[in-house]
Amino acid sequence: MKVRAVATEKSDSKYDRLIAQAQRVAGVNAVVVHPCDEPSLRGAIEAANIGLIAPLLVGPAPKINAVAREHKLEIGKFDLVDVAHSDEAAAKAVELIRAGRGELLMKGSLHTDELMRAVTAASTGLRTARRISHVFIVDVPTYPETLFITDAAVNIFPDLDAKHDIVQNAIDLFAAVGLGTPRVAILSAVETVTAKIPSTIDAAALCKMADRGQITGGILDGPLAFDNAIDPAAARIKGIHSPVAGRAQILVVPDLEAGNMLAKNLIYLSKADSAGLVLGARVPIVLTSRADSVRSRMASCAAAVLYAAARRSSVAVPAA
Questions:
Q1: What Cα–Cα distance (Å) separates residue 101 from each residue in 33, 97, 104?
Q2: All domains of the chain, ordered by start, with CATH?
Q3: 274 touches 147 (CB < 8 A)
Q4: 85-123 confidence digits (pLDDT tens)
Q5: What's the order of all strands across the beta sheet hosting 104-107?
Q6: pLDDT (tens digit, 9 = 90+) per residue, 278-319?
Q7: Which of 242, 248, 204 is nearest to 222 (CA)?
Q8: How far apart are CA 47 and CA 25, in angstroms?
Q9: pTM
Q10: Nearest 5°: CA angle at 307, between 264 and 9?
């Protein structure tokens, strides 16, 4: 397959390298759910045009065709499954995934809860034994590493069992996109274990799980406060000596509120770019928003392609 470079707002970003790596993968079939506005339809087309995906569009054909005509988007070469409305589009997309028609889901202009309701349906959805979670992939200009933040979008107050899956999902994604063995910081407000802050106890338990082989593929440390997780000087001042402290690549937050505020702080105050995926289902799910930049949309899609390819090979990411 001949691929072309993607045009982005910045040059030589961490995302550019991620996209270039995904372009080397054989075409991945993507089911695009209800792409009934210009950003979501254009995002699928652009991802196809640079060789990332082969999209199957699912939604009301009259609406999709009208958006394509209005914005001069060429969709004639893509398969289009006509359904009446967004709920039916979500259900049909999940049915197509179950039938083997796609290796990833890509959200269009429907609400996230509509899509996830179909994904998590008990008998007809895409659940696995693994807890479903979200990973932000953040390119912070002032930080040398690509930062993964989890979970800041799906699990509100996860318990220890949920955190186990949240951590493993993030490690599996990190490996699948070719970044190697991640340094995983389990965040809390402090770096010492105390019964007064339950997240510090969870952090210690997760690290022990990794020691005993219950979590694999990453190097864990925690609890760590944010400063000594990402700043070597802060870690040194606190007397924390570990491969993770000051050099974290995955940040595991105690709850959704903390993670959401952390991610948005980096995006709006540090001018970071943010991509992301939902993991733990049968296929990776790209949740895009109207505010996403071109680079962020393409990076999310690229990460999903690499994850799907790794699942296909059953080497980098074992089936959940």
A1: 13, 5, 9
A2: 1-6+25-127+292-320 (3.40.50.10950), 129-280 (3.40.718.10)
A3: no
A4: 999 999 999 999 999 999 999 999 999 999 999 999 999
A5: 79-82, 53-59, 28-33, 104-107, 285-286, 273-279, 133-139, 147-150, 250-252, 183-187, 219-224
A6: 999 999 999 877 777 777 889 999 999 999 999 887 644 444
A7: 204
A8: 13
A9: 0.90
A10: 45
